[in-house]
Every structure is written in C-alpha cells, then in structure tokens.
Amino acid sequence: MLRRRGGILERLLHHGDVPVLVRVAQTSCDEVLFGARAATSDAGAYGIERMRFMLGVDEDLRPFLRRFARDPLIGSSLRRRPWLRAGRRPEPFEALAWAICEQLIDYVRSAVTHTGGISAMRKLLDFAAMYQIKSGIHGPADISPIGMAAALHLGLAIHNFGIQEYASHSAQTLSVFQTSYQFEDGLLHPGDRPGLGVEMDLEAAAAFPYQAAYLPVNRLALDGTVHDW
C-alpha cells in the first residue's frame, strides 16, 4: 500500500520474507531523497531499488521529449509539463492483483520471465485459482526457449492451467538454444531432459550481438492517434 503523509510517500514492500518500509521525499525541484527501514541492508537496498523503479527517477526522458514534443496527440501536454513521469508498480504481482480479485480477467497472460520467475508466477497462479481464473501464459517468439520451457513445466504443475501461447523460434535462435520440448499435433511436450531441458551455447550466441528492436506502431497522420498494428 502506498501512502502520502505530509508530502512524504511511504510504501511497505517485502524482500523475500523480510518487510521493508520505504519513504520518499522530494526535497527540492531536482532532488529526491529515499530512505528504507529493514532488518537487513540487502532488503533495504532492494526496497529503494523497487521504489526508484516505480517512480521512474532514473529514467532519462530527454530522448522521449525530443521525439514527441511536437506530437499532435501528446506534444502540447509534454511541453507544458516535461517533468511528468509514468508511474509503475514495484512488483509484477501487484499489477495483476486487483484484476484477479475483481475478476476482471479470465486468464493470466503474463510471461514467466516478466513476472518474477517460476516461483513468483506459481504463487500468482495459485492466487488466481481461488477466483476461477486460469493460466494463459504469454509465449511469443521474443520470449527465449528458456522462458518457453519454464512456462511448459509450470503449466504441468498447476491445477488451473488454461492454454499456452506458442510461437516457434527461428533457426538462428535454435542454433543457440538446444531444446527438448516438442510441438506436434497442437500439443506441447516438455521433453525428458533434466531441469528445464534447454541448453544455451554461449559461443554460438556471440555471433548474434544484442540489437535493440521495437514492435511496430501505426499512427494516424492527421492527429497522431495510435492504433492496433
């Protein structure tokens, strides 16, 4: 829960089982002060890191502002208030908690790799099961074979499995990741290798240096409206 007391934001988080109380205050127009109270220094550092992420204080907005300052849809708002930052949730679980509690969704569509890993996703799906909500784990080609294998094994371990999204990976991807899972006749089988059943060839990966890539976005020429691509 996030509270505001006299201009100070307070938030209780948890690092594993250790509670962390984080306080944030803006002491001047260009300075924000963070403090944390916890039983361990690691827990305190974690709490501050998550609050910095939530408030977006480490994001450099200048490239965004330069690109969209004259945008027909949002440009005027950005020019009036260039200091505004998009608020975020400190934990993936929290982003879905209210949607689950109020039964606003029928399937949990998160990817395992975007939701804290196998253990965190398992807890989220167990929570969803109490509200008759099933899994529909995200599985596009930009989720690596390791993430895909994690989703398959998790799907076998829960009682509220719904459906598994699957997009086959390219030959280049499969030259780096050797997988044991198989897709045949509309069914996915996780294979019988130990662990997740995926091995990564680091030497092969070196042939494909990282390159930033973005999903395409269509914008109407007249007013800049974003629409489905």
Notes on the protein architecture:
This protein has 229 residues and is an alpha+beta fold. The protein folds into 2 domains: 2-59, no CATH class; 92-205, Alpha-Beta Barrel (TIM Barrel). The protein is 32% helix and 22% strand. It has 8 helices and 12 strands. The strands form 5 sheets. A 4-stranded antiparallel β-sheet has the order 1-2-3-4, with helices on one face. A two-stranded parallel ribbon has the order 5-6.
Walk across the major sheet and give the strand order: 1-2-3-4
Number of helices: 8
The amount of beta strand, in percent, is: 15-25%
Largest sheet: 4 strands, antiparallel
> What's the end-to-end separation, in Å?
36 Å
CATH architecture of the largest domain: Alpha-Beta Barrel
Number of E-state strands: 12
What's the number of domains? 2
Which spans have pLDDT < 50 for at least 5 consecutive residues? none
- Overall helicity: 25-40%
Query: Quick one: overall form?
Result: globular
Find the CATH topology of the largest domain: TIM Barrel
Radius of gyration, in Å, reads 21 Å
CATH superfamily of the largest domain: Enolase-like C-terminal domain
Given the helix and strand composition, which structural class is it? alpha+beta
CATH class of the largest domain: Alpha Beta
Mean pLDDT equals 88
Give the helices and strands as they follow along the chain.
EEEEHHHHEHEHHEEEEHEE
Oligomeric state of shown chains: single chain
